[in-house]
Amino acid sequence: MDDAALRATFDEQVRRRTRADAPGARTEADGAIVREVARDGRGWSGITWSDLGDPAAADQVIAAQVGYFAGLGLPFEWKLYDYDQPPDLGDRLASAGFVPDEEEAVMVAEVASLPADVTLPDGVTLRPVTTEAGVDQLIQVHDQVFGGDQSRLRHALVAQLRDNPGDIAMVLAMAGSQPVCAARADFPPGTDFAGLWGGGTLPGWRGRGIYRALIAYRAGLAGRRGYRYLTVDASADSEPILRRLGFRCLARTTPYQWAPEGAA
User: Fold this and answer.
1) pTM of the complete model beyond 0.85
2) CA-to-CA distance for 226 and 69, rounded, in angstroms?
3) According to a count of CB atoms within 10 Å of the terminal CB, is the N or C end of the chain lower?
4) 37, 45 in Cβ contact below 8 A?
């Protein structure tokens, strides 16, 4: 499948048919956009897909979404892909008060083409996360690798582990009792795409193949569940590793953040 056709399939199956997995969250189609709305702000809210081909109407749609989330008192993210229309959508979002985060590469690979060997350094083992205590260890790694406030992610992962455990897999790389790398995968029902998220290794353990091993481990899970593709929103550090493993860049994406006045 060429990239244009694959992007169209990705849009239809993943962006337009996004499924809220946090307790109480909901997905809504509102004309030219699809949004996910968290319950009580305890989770992720945002625009997952938009079709604003008419530049004259784009600012009105943006303002309507700001008004909607302002009415709920919720911050939200507009997840912009570089092929979204109109071409100046990012500038329009910035003018409406959104703040862009760092750009990421949307990397994709066919599961069957990825290396299957899970090779770890001596003394390092993999441990699936199946308990709240395991989620706490995963968040501990994320805190050290990514920084920021991980409390909403922790809440969402604990709830998903409790209510929809079949749709997610989390794993830790352990050096004895110390978690040194953490990653997770989402398995949305009814799509060809499994998503890889949160792969992060502590600085002192990088360059030893642990990140690569966790890619292979999660690719194996996806293959056994019948998924055809893996996608990753990759940072500049991760993109070269993924390219060496056989991933290619399908698009570039930038999260644009908006928060009500006075919100953290």
Assistant:
1) yes
2) 37
3) C
4) yes
From residue 202, alpha-carbon distances to 94, 195, 247 in Å are 33, 22, 23
Regarding whether 51 and 21 lie in a shared domain, the answer is yes
CA 194 from chain centre, in angstroms, equals 11
E strand or H helix at 175, and its extent?
A: strand 168-175
Q: For the chain, how many structural domains are there in total?
A: 2
Which residue do the tokens 């997905």 mark?
27
Residue-wise pLDDT for 111-143, tens only, equals: 999 988 899 999 999 999 999 999 999 999 999
Helix (H, G, I), strand (E, B) or coil at 254: strand
Domain enclosing residue 34, as ranges: 3-104+253-258
Check residue 250 and give its pLDDT: 97
Closest to 250 (Cα-Cα) out of 184, 195, 199, 200: 195
CB proximity list for 82: less than 8 A, separation 6 or greater: 251, 252, 253, 254
Q: Is 144 found in the same domain as 96? A: no
